[in-house]
Amino acid sequence: MIVRGFWGESDRRKAICDAIKMIADWRDKVGFYKFFDCHIQDDKNFHAWWPEKMYGHDKWGHFIQGVRAGEVDTDSLMTLSDEALESLQGQKMSAYQIYKHEWMMQNGSQRYKHTLCVDLTNMSMNMLRGKKRQVLQKIFHIGSTYYPESMWKIYLVNSPLIFRAIWAIIKPWLHPVTLSKIQIIGSAKEAIKKMNEEGIPIEAIPDWMGELVRVDSPASLTCGQEGNTQGCPPTTTSPRSSRGEEDSACCNSSEPSLIFPFS
Which portions of the chain have biased composition (kind: Polar residues) (predicted)? Predict the structure, then answer.
């Protein structure tokens, strides 16, 4: 994933080598290889303050991750140290990598990316004031810097009028490759149509987008709760990167069986 993430750089060899060293140093700093040995302090609070949910897969096997901006508690997230934010967000991103790796092993197709769907309802400039801006910037930075090539597509749905001003602040935080994957869509109705046209079945579209017939994801990255990521990641081997993703549809794919290490 690192090689693919930096392949477009003008001096790709240097960029790839620098990225490998940077990511390796960061992993040592945050205790990457011990992420799943035990609870990280404040993990339950972190997942409650930044709730996410997995909704299913598109026809190629990319899982759909959903976040609602109005449910993100930036006031509480501000109480976490930078070190805690790095470890907790890193643990979550690593759990997603492991989930995708186990899905690949069961279904025989390379899938190391996933799709993100964000509900912008109730998002306001207040979320970007003072230290809150630094918190959000830190979380975005961890994903784009230390987990390159993780995103397939990003849908920003229900964008309010104020989002134009908010987007002007957030946009510089994101890598150009990430920006190219983002679609800003005004209404949930438009988003459902767009996502369905782009290979996401109705049952995998987040339920907050309307009255949909769905089947919840049978596997999750939580401690015993289906369908969301509020909890602890599975016990498994370290995630492996993949060289590429096939474009063949993954009909009748199965979910990986996850083992939850904590109670």
Answer: 223-241
